[in-house]
User: What shape does this take?
Amino acid sequence: MSERLTPRAENETRTTKREADALRTRVAELEVERHTTNEALDDAVQALRGQRDRITELEAALAKYIGQEPTVVEEMAYLSRSVQAVADACDKAEQQALRWENPLPVPEWVGAIRQALELAPAPTEEAVS
Assistant: This one.
């Protein structure tokens, strides 16, 4: 013998089934959303790890130079050597031009550089110390 539900019970059963189906659909949507969110979070974590690793590399590179800056005396010595090397190059160019029986003209740049060297202030002992 089969029991029949009352019309009210049948209506409630149909409503409950519809609500359960709607809830299952919503759960499926939320699972898809969670999966998408997890993928985005994973991408962000990977990017942050990469940035963290790069920062670590840069900090290690920077550590090699901190406290290694030249002193004023060292910088002035380097600049003096550089200026002397430029003056020596001018002298050499002039000597090569004038060494012939019929001298060649001295390159124009020699005069321009010598003029610039004369305009440059000579280092003082105060600046070096």
Q: What stands out?
A: Residues 7-63 form the longest helix (57 residues). The mean pLDDT is 89. The helical segments are 7-63, 72-98, 108-119, 125-128.
